[in-house]
Design brief:
Two copies of one chain form a homodimer.
Chain A (H helix, E strand, L loop, with lengths): L3 E6 L14 E5 L4 E3 L7 E7 L2 E6 L5 E7 L4 E2 L2 E2 L2 E2 L2 E4 L3 E7 L2 H4 L1 H27 L2 H12 L10 E2 L4 H8 L3 H13 L3 E5 L2 E4 L2 H7 L4
Antiparallel strand pairs in A: 1-2, 2-11, 3-10, 4-7, 4-11, 5-6, 5-10, 8-9, 12-14, 13-14
Chain A binds a DNA duplex (30 and 30 nucleotides) through helix 5.
Chain lengths: ~210, ~210
DNA sequence: CTCTACCATTGAGAAAGATCAACGGCGGAG
DNA sequence: CTCCGCCGTTGATCTTTCTCAATGGTAGAG
């Protein structure tokens, strides 16, 4: 896996204190595992460009995609010195990495991470509501609204860079249930499927109602 | 609700910069709603003593307990200037509150919050795995292990300060399913129920296996 | 151009959990 | 002390989602 295409020292978050804790920018292909759950947690990372998913596994192989990340989001968090999640790119991405020790030395970095952690924690709270209390159809509606930037015009079509299995692992469903939910949304006219991975939201109002005011 | 019993200016995190952003410690009775989802987010809070649960509601009344907090944990997070969750005490608690602006002025506070956010984000990742991929029995086992401090001796009994409904709302189940799971764990000898809210873990190994190495 | 993965869709049957309902116990109010 | 109300338990049934299985589409390799 780890098909890191390019690595260069970062022009990102450079500051006088950072002499021995350099930031590095990685350019990574799609479908690359950037880090592994359980590995020693040496660095903390930010998505600069692209999309990354964080996953956790149960011993028997059940998988949960715990978070979907875009530009600005932070990952590589540690519990007991080990990464709590694996991270895999969904699209070609640029990732900025920092020594963990830089957190104590670089207040600008620390402040940015603090703001971002707060945002990501709020998103996780919403996701808990989705996973704990929403039906399959509601989950898929929520997922599509979350991907579709608010200001996006009605005509624009959304490209999904996830398979049905990945969406299912994110929403706590099976791939068949996700597929059925897509078909149901299409049948109700809330959504148009140009291709399996090309979606247009037709009736945003009904989608929002389904997703519980997302 | 809001039965605040006592308020006093905090001896907590006092620092020279904090002249106009004082910390305040609140002493709060059990079963008190400390803040409401949607209210303007003016302050950020830390649990000093006691236990707090964060909840979110869907428009039709379905509820999810998104996080359980103990001493050191932070809440009062905001999305768009409004609290993302309601917060309710489970036991009599002491809560320290800070102006949000203190975050920019008090680096000690900011550093503490950064560490805590990272820990809470990791816990939320685990919880997503629980909600998305675990069976009812596994969820309840996970819940009990999470409450039972690691070092706790076999003989010690755990007091649950949550009703079956609250546990269900935390685990994404119904209260009946939670009750059945407790009975099943008892029947299998993994747990002893002295009273409905008094539990002893009898077979920690089997519990850990059920909970997927929690 | 064709073949071949892989991915998505759809259907039928099974299982887990939700819902509806009745009963029992414990604790606080009077 | 007794009553009443809330909470928990258990049972029966129903719904949703999972599981298993077959079929169809699409994109990349040869």
């Amino acid at each position: 896996m780890r098909q890191i295409i390019e690595e260069r020292t970062g022009s990102f978050s450079r500051s006088p204190q950072l002499v021995e804790a350099p930031a590095a920018n990685l350019r990574v292909a799609a479908h690359t595992t950037v880090l592994h759950e359980g590995d020693p947690a040496r660095r903390i990372m930010e998505v600069v460009e692209g999309a990354v998913m964080l996953t956790k596994l149960l011993p028997d192989g059940r998988r949960q995609v715990v978070e979907l990340l875009g530009p600005g989001d932070v990952f590589g968090l540690a519990h007991d010195e080990a990464y709590a999640c694996s991270a895999e790119t969904l699209t070609p991405s640029v990732i900025s990495t920092h020594e963990r020790s830089a957190l104590e030395r670089d207040p600008v970095l620390a402040a940015r991470l603090l703001r971002r952690f707060e945002a990501q924690l709020c998103v996780m709270h919403s996701h808990a509501l989705v996973l704990g209390r929403m039906s399959a159809l509601e989950r898929v509606a929520f997922f599509l609204l979350r991907l579709m930037p608010e200001g996006m015009v009605g005509g624009a079509t959304l490209h999904l860079s996830m398979t049905r299995q990945e969406i299912a692992d994110f929403l706590g469903l099976t791939l068949e249930t996700v597929s059925r939910a897509f078909s149901e949304l299409k049948r109700r006219g809330l959504v148009a499927l140009l291709r399996a991975d090309e979606v247009r939201i037709q009736d945003r109002g009904s989608m929002r109602r389904l997703a519980g005011a997302a």
